[in-house]
Amino acid sequence: MTSLPDEQTTQLVAGRLLEMADDELILSHRNSEWTGHAPILEEDIAFANIAQDEMGHALIWYELLRSLTGRDPDRLVFFREPCEYRNLQMVELPKGDWAFTVLRQYLFDTWEAGHLEALEQSRFTPVAEAAQKIGKEERYHLRHTAAWLCRLGRGTEESNSRMQAALDQLWPFHSQIWAAPPDYERLVTESLMPDLARLGSLWEDRVRTELSEAGLTPPGFGQPSAPLRDEHTEHLQPLIEEMQQVARLETEAGW
Amino acid sequence: MTDEARLEAFEARIARGEKIEPGDWMPEQYRKQLIRMISQHAHSEIVGMLPEGAWITRAPTLRRKLVLLAKVQDEAGHGQYLYHAAETLGATREQMLDDLLSSRAKYSSVFNYPTLSWADIGVIGWLVDGAAIINQTMLAKSSYGPYSRAMLRICAEETFHKKQGQEMVILLSQGTPKQRAMVQNAINRWWWPTLMMFGPHDSESKNSAELMRWGVKTRSNDELRQVFVNQLIPDLHALGLSVPDPQLRFDEETGNWLIGPIDWDEFWRVVKGNGPCNAERLEARRQAHEDGRWVREALAAYAEKQKTEGPQGPQRPQGPCEFARP
Amino acid sequence: MRSLGSFVGVTMPDTQWPRFEVFLIEDERKPAEHVGSVHAPDPEMALLNARDVFVRRPHCEGLWVAASGHVLFRTAEELARDPVSQNGHPGEERRYLVFGKPNHREPLALAACLSAQSPEEALAQALKESSAIESVLWAVVSEAELTRSDRNDRVSFFEPAATKNYKLHAEYPTARLMKEIRQK
User: Fold this and answer.
1) Right CATH number for A7-218+227-249 from 3.30.70.270, 1.10.490.10, 3.40.47.10, 1.20.1260.10?
2) Taking Cα atoms as reference points, which of B224, B169, B46, B239 lies closest to residue C181?
3) Nearest-CA distance C19 → chain B (Å)
4) Mean pLDDT throughout A7-15?
5) pLDDT tens across C71-111, in order?
6) Contacts of B293 in chain A (CB under 8 A)
7) Which of B67, B145, B307 shows the shortest C-beta gap to C8?
8) What predicted TM-score, i.e. pTM, was given to this entire model?
9) What b-and-e string marks burial along C18-47, b requiring 16 or more CB atoms within 10 Å of the CB?
């Protein structure tokens, strides 16, 4: 189907698209901070590529959102308050060291790969088509980060302990990834969006196996319950302020 | 064959327009000059990522963000091509980077100036990359094959850098009073450093004569600088923008825009390491190099293990080579 | 300088990792071309790095990488000075790919594929068999030393670059904008 049945469904789909777009945007922002500072020249290029791809994905989801709600992507990104952002807490955390960046990227890429595959089955054609397009690049990202995961996990003692420290820091945030927004069930019933809890358990199985192959163990603790998407860490506000500072110098002009 | 006869044959090849390839005989001085020049050029690309890279997180639209990311990524790519060209002459990337990080090597002094506003990004694209393209178009004709090929690749990609910058400057110059002031201010600060990019006057440049004789360069610094000024001034004026040079005038006879004197004291001060951002730029590169050390070591160690313990992780089967014609 | 490890055929006292030569297939109907090199710790990373360095824009349909130490380069001038010995260091019989660069404009592209006991022998054979082919530069590599992207990689490796139109200078109508402003 190319249009949604009613206003309520439209709002629900739009709400989920905003979450997906914000995830890509904020992760891209963090990754772009490495440009010019990566461990080796080739990786400056590779990581700038990943950041571009994610920015491109964010743009695809924001454009789809515009087609549903009429909201302009640039207005949405540059003139929204931090508390109105709906991204995962995991992606807003500072870039940390290279191990942290690689591990976060690995967790996100593996999640996204499964999520996109499921989205390709959406009955809402624009979502299915966008997922297919994004999925092509995502497969490459996955190969890139999977290669890094196993090399840093099994490289030296130092690289292994840095990766383990990154995992200890990130793992408590992982369950938010499959937490569904209110009334999301309706979208699952109507085959517009995938069942996040089911994807989440598949994802966790996969990730646990691969992490263990890389010599890493998820810690035994986590958050008692996943925070809602409107709850953020202290790191989001300065990020948004930096991102919006130029756009807000002239609020009505073109840039 | 005596060295003299070799030199004669070498110069005859260059005169015939042939390219010199890595294994060919070449005078030691030709090799040295090329390594110096190409590695300086590579360092300029790498250091050049920093002043612009700092604005990726502040780009005011999603499209500008994408474009700037792609542009800075290209600069890393261009540095990569250039280091490769120098490596074909026997230089190692480690040695070249070591020279850069320990302040022994030079790079384009223009990257030692600060980027103070978003308008700087447009002005750098149009002016700094525009000037670089003029120089690189000449170097694409260079007598050393790998350098010339790197330049062809770079020029093809760099046109986008210049045009995205010009597009921004056009937009800002036709924008609000605040935007116009912003872009004029950026031009005022970048104008002279950009003109200095072409290097000292030909009479002052100790390397120029040799580089021209061996076909590494085919046009002089002053000639190229004039091409740039003539290209840019009419466009800037059309946009209602000016350059900070009270002596600028159009010479009817030659059709050239003539500029006032360049402050060469400032040029040499910045080249020698005392510009506004020299220390900061090198510190950023050193920090990245140090922070990356454990990463490079870990991957080298993993590769070593793979070699001695056999491949780890999933292996992909490989069929015979696919190619169109033998 | 500390020794940080090595890969087959390459000694690497270097913090920049070994070099791998990169060959690119622009279009399936054209032979592979040598385009440059990347630094990488191992062949898989070399292939990924080659993709990121050389496929920032289209066109590409395939990539090969080989450790630089395994690629024999010879210029026409070197060959004239020092003709290749037939049996340099003969080893077991392998398939070799020989690349030639006909002149300064054309790329260093795949010209022959043959069996030999060393890269030197492969080059000598190629020179003998195709004495009509002029080349200013030759490169020889054993097929077994190549790591290649495969057909399944195409969609994720190469197709996405085609959608990044913001890298194309034609996307920026600066000439038209300037003209419009001058006319005002």
Assistant:
1) 1.20.1260.10
2) B239
3) 9
4) 97
5) 999 999 999 888 876 556 778 899 999 999 999 999 999 99
6) 39
7) B307
8) 0.94
9) bbbbbbbbbeeebbbbbbbbbbbbbbbbbb
